Sequence to fold (253 residues):
Amino acid sequence: MMIIDILTIFPELVRAPLQQSILGKAIERGLIDVRIVNIRDFAVDRHLTTDDRPYGGGSGMVMKIEPLVGAIRRVRSMDPPVYVVLMSPQGRLFKQEIAWELSRLQHISLVCGRYEGIDERLRSYVDDEISIGDYIVSGGELPALVVTEAVSRLIPGVLGNREATAEETFADTLLEYPQYTRPEVFEGQRVPEVLLSGNHEAIRRWRRQQSLYRTWKRRRDLLARAILSTEDRQLLAEIIEGEKEQQGSGGSI
Ligand code: SAH
Fold:
């Protein structure tokens, strides 16, 4: 069982999302254990302070180092050994590859910052720093939940029997093909004929082709890194040719 600790001064902020849906079930079934650690429990003064004014002046407050290090020392004293990750907009950009990397560990701790940031000296107490994207949110809690969800769905058994992870977007650096469910026609929009055909080979080719086309349209950077088979190249060339011939009629993506 994988253990994920979330170190935060807002335990309530992360509690509810851990009780719902896939994450909730994974915890219930004992596939992962998510422990919420309240950093405030490790405050060292009478008022349980977790922030203070920045040295050198300036606006906002800075997270004090003692409670953070206290909380990290507590998780480090536990078994199995822990990999401590600071949630930070200055960290390495979170990607599916990093989710895979973390999913192979037995125990990780996600440290959530708040306020203007954290005392710089904390950096020497953590093993890694991860950013969920080039934007700033107010605390590390939502980023920690993003990482928790992305990592837990890669743990064997969490998604049940379905082999979704192999096909999902980013698993092989292509975007996923379009999906449809009933009804067959909605406000004039039809489900592509091939999906109703029952022809598994035709469906497989169509899906692969859509996947390639979408990636070519939307994320050429991903396509450049993907390893394409001869069939892939043919499928892509065919659909791009088809689009040129149609020029403008339909085919919005
Ligand atoms: N002033 C800081 C940002 C502080 S935001 C700076 O410019 O670097 C407060 C906290 O929110 C951070 O300590 C971090 O834990 C979290 N956070 C904000 N944006 C994040 C992001 N993109 N990825 C991961 N954590 C983030």
